[in-house]
Amino acid sequence: MHPHSLLFRLTASSAVAALLLSPVLPSAALAQPPPPVGAAQQQAGDPPARVGRLARTSGTVSFHTAEADQWSPASINYPVTSGEGFWTEPNAQAELQVGGSRIQLAGGTDFEVGLLDDNGLQATMGQGEAYLHTRGTGPSESWSVQTPRGLVTLSGDGRYAIVAGDSQTPTTVTVLEGSAQVSGDNVNLQVAAGQAATITGTDSFQGSLGPAQPDSFVTAMLAREAPPPVPAVAPPPAVESMPGGADLAAYGTWAEAREYGPVWYPQVAAGWVPYREGHWAWVPPWGWTWVDDDPWGFAPFHYGRWVEIGGRWAWTPGVVTVAAPPVYAPALVTFFGIAAGIGLGAALASGDIGWCPLGPREAYHPWYHASDRYWREVNVRHVTNITRIDRSVVIDRYANRSAATMVAASVLQASRPVRPAARRVDPRQLAAAHAVIGREPVAPTRATAGVTAATARQTRLAPVPPGAAVRHGAAPGPAIRPAVAPGAVRPRPAGPAAPQLQGPQQRGRPALKRARRRRSCRGRSSRGDRRCRAGRQPRTPRHMPRRRWPARVVIRLPAPCRHNRGRPRLPESSLHMRRHWHIPANGRPVRSPCRMHRPGPRPRRPRRSTRLPRPGRRLPRHRSRPRRMRLRRRARCTGRNRLTTRPRPRRR
């Protein structure tokens, strides 16, 4: 740049002005404000705030996640979210809880949760029978169940029984309390309390109304619904909206604490510690999730805080009263690693990981992607100042530091029970502990419960080492319908797709192992990209390039097509070898003695020319040798097939 140019003068003036004004301007004006911490995550979407749980099982019960392609054994207190499905064997039963509502599944029932959020539940039942008792549903909630013959929409709280039916059994919707609407092809029925709707047909459906007649399964479920005991101290209203919150009165005692309000004391043995009787599983999109072994172990480990009062452990739903429903968390703990003299990454790599239960007024920091809004909503009942996010955590100052648990990292990765492998943490070790904030403590493996084949491919997990025990094996169940992957944007449709009607012989039969898709034949024909048909060889192209290969060349032929097992197949990139090379049946190329022969139709007759090229010179395409010389050359190659046999010897 010339020193006397106008651009140089402007640039120099700007630089001098910036240097002169830099001491005057404050540092906040010079630096750009950093973007919000959760801006990118909030655009991607926060985890669901509402989930259900698998409360009870009897017999063989299977389940699958949204990304799974096979069934796995179900365990109680496993979170129920969108995309999960459940299957009960003919002599098994299962109970799902969503807030204060319950869903009872009879034997041989295929029940899939399509969408579960604050607006309600959308499910699909391909076969079997289900009993639904809805309680505490909001005015904006909508519950619907798709059957093979129509969509059943439930109106408010009530008791409902739905039988999916098959090709020979009708679909029935029985309303004991509340009201429901059945809509489908040529069917639109409004079912009131004490009525039952019956839908029949296979191609065209016919519906009718009649009096309600509960069967043996519904009668047994009604007899099981005993009113819970009335506690001496009423729990907060938020407990009723938690899955399993209504069952706490049967497994413990509610009392009033001066500092924390209503608290719940569980009936546990001496030496019991929170987050020690269970195992860790991998549940997308949260990641590491605590699955407790106790029948009441869902609400106290995914909502609220734990505190030790008078030598007894008590659970508090929250010290701040909020009108909004509580937000689900996979585990209200803080992971840490012992890093005395070394870095935290090296401490975690050494194979030890610990966690500490959170106490009242202690903030929960997610290890998965979440926005600042999600952080405030999940901590609003327990943290007084939610406008300031403090991520400085000192494990030695936690209220429940005496209940800290440490295990080997392989215990989490293999989803083994924590109790046999748990170790107490020395106070000196807690002083050197560093919290794991904003990231996963350890990476899962293929042996972790909840890790599917799709998750393993996305995260590039290592295979299970030989001899390692896998907690989640294969389980029986029907064919799995594809579902939307968790974390994706889910528009709320009018209703899930209707499953197909099944015959009576197919009910209760587990699905066989899926056959692998047949790979399409990749043999190409000479005309376009049409695939070769079964039993045909790829045709020889009529026009080939004029490239000559050297005398020594190593050619590796690919595996033959499944329709052409007898003879090898040349790839498209080496079709020009057919001009100068002979490919016998054994697949070993042999140099052809005739280099001037061209397979295909006879070329057009060129103009006569007696001029011959110089030695070593090659003729272009529009010029050729005289006709008599070409006929002599072609006569040497009569009766020869280049692709199947060797050239015949000339007779003398």
Characterize the structure shown.
There is one protein chain. The chain is an alpha+beta fold and 652 residues long. The chain folds into 3 domains: 44-226 and 473-490, Jelly Rolls (Sandwich); 237-443, no CATH class; 521-599 and 626-652, no CATH class. Helix content is 13%, strand content 25%. It contains 12 helices and 29 strands. The strands form 6 sheets. The chain has a 16-stranded mixed beta sheet that branches. Strands 26-25-24-23-27 form a 5-stranded antiparallel beta sheet. Mean pLDDT is 75; it is low at 15-43, 484-494, 509-541, 543-581, 591-598 and 638-645.
Reported for the largest beta sheet, the result is: 16 strands, mixed
Q: How many domains, as an integer? A: 3
DSSP helix fraction: 10-25%
Number of DSSP-assigned strands: 29
The class by helix and strand makeup works out as: alpha+beta
Principal-axis shape equals globular
Taken as a percent bin, the fraction of beta residues is 15-25%
What integer is the average pLDDT?
A: 75
Distance between the termini: 86 Å
Low-confidence stretches: 15-43, 484-494, 509-541, 543-581, 591-598, 638-645
Count of separate DSSP helical elements:
12
> Over the alpha carbons, how many angstroms does the gyration radius reach?
36 Å
Task: Record keyword descriptors for this entry.
652 residues; alpha+beta; Jelly Rolls; 3 domains; 16-stranded mixed beta sheet; five-stranded antiparallel beta sheet; 12 helices; 25% strand
